[in-house]
Design brief:
Layout: E1 6-9, H1 13-24, E2 27-28, E3 32-33, E4 40-45, E5 51-56, E6 74-78, H2 82-94, E7 98-105, E8 111-117, E9 121-126
């Protein structure tokens, strides 16, 4: 069994699509729009075939996103080397994203950084 895709609701669908294309190399399909419900989505495909569905619909609940909440907490992207972690982290920081940790070696053996992006959601960049 494998995970087919992960989905996240966003307020700014086009902004989220552009973020994942720009920083994570995502390839987007064409916009799906259900005109009856107002639901819109894109499927984003990454280099190894992993997919993320970003979605939007009218009247969503935009709850506070504490980093200590239960449930899904971050999306991690492996970029292949410590140097690439450093470069992408520096690029995102320069572009105004908040780096909350790293780049650093973690106690469980990862080299990573964590950034707050996409409407308060955490993105992890790792080797």
């Amino acid at each position: 069994m494998k995970i087919d895709h992960i989905a996240m609701y966003v307020n700014d669908l086009e902004g989220a699509r552009k973020f994942f294309e720009k920083y994570m190399g995502a390839i987007s399909n064409n916009l799906y729009h259900n005109e009856k419900t107002g639901f819109k989505s894109y499927f984003l495909t990454f280099g190894d075939g992993a997919r993320l569905e970003i979605m939007n619909k009218p009247d969503m609940d935009d709850a506070s996103k504490s980093l200590q909440r239960t449930g899904f907490i971050h999306i991690a992207f492996s970029v292949g080397s410590k140097e690439k972690v450093d470069l992408l982290t520096a690029r995102m920081k320069k572009d105004g994203y908040h780096v909350i940790s790293g780049p650093r070696n973690t106690g469980d053996g990862y080299y990573e950084s964590c950034i707050i992006a996409i409407e308060g959601n955490q993105i992890e960049i790792t080797v």
